[in-house]
Amino acid sequence: MKLRVLGCSGGIGGRDQRTTALLVDDDVLIDAGTGVGDLEFEELVRIDHIFVTHAHLDHIAMIPLLVDTVGEARSMPIVVHATAETLRILRSHIFNWLVWPDFSSIPDRHNPFLCFQEMRVDEVAKLGRGRFMKALPALHTVPAVAYQLSGEGGSLVFSGDTAYSEPLIAAINEIPDLRYLLVETAFPDALHDLALASRHLCPSLLALFLERIKSNPEVWITHLKPSRARTTLEEIAGYCGRFSPKALYNGLELTL
């Protein structure tokens, strides 16, 4: 099983700045930010599942365009998995016939291009081929989850957008085969108060978070704000510890 980074930036600007989207093999997305737009049509058609961490635009922007682009070329609907709160936001504010058509009723409700599947924290979705996706607790300004992706080669955790979260740390510490931890750090320490208010991590909060992790996964940093990325990474590197976090980048492939 392979996970390919399509987008991991906290903003846009230039070819390297795409918002959050991770492609699992060729048929599963974790979030669907602007990075999805770099896929070819033939790749888009193969996407069967989208697991959404939360409803903010940088994580869901390409869902409406993806469904509109490939709906008629597929024999089955694309399934969007998310918490009940996130699905309610998508239905009410995106697929509402005002911002975008409701593709869960196009061409009709019995044969839609899109369907929604509620996913609760701790629930596990079976994806076939020995792949599993589990929702983990996260803490953000809107209802949010992290995801644990598991296969024969171990597990990966993607934090999504989150503040320091004891429940998320506890969930991570229960994973015996954790190989990769993809964790957000949006702001430098100079914007510590903004990080707290917007429920994101900054380097000092990331250090506290990582100190509580009992295993030794590879740590990759995501959701860096483009204008502050270099400073944020320098501050992360300055914290002592057993981890040496690296910046996630578009095109990176991780294998499980």
From TrEMBL:
InterPro entries: Metallo-B-lactamas, Pdiesterase2, RibonucZ/Hydroxyglut_hydro. Residues 18-205 form the Metallo-beta-lactamase domain. One of its GO terms (biological process) is cAMP catabolic process. SMART domains: Lactamase_B (SM00849). One of its GO terms (molecular function) is 3',5'-cyclic-AMP phosphodiesterase activity. Gene3D superfamilies: Ribonuclease Z/Hydroxyacylglutathione hydrolase-like (3.60.15.10). It comes from the Bacteria. CDD domains: class_II_PDE_MBL-fold (cd07735). This is 3',5'-cyclic-nucleotide phosphodiesterase. It comes from Zoogloea dura. The lineage of its organism: Bacteria, Pseudomonadati, Pseudomonadota, Betaproteobacteria, Rhodocyclales.
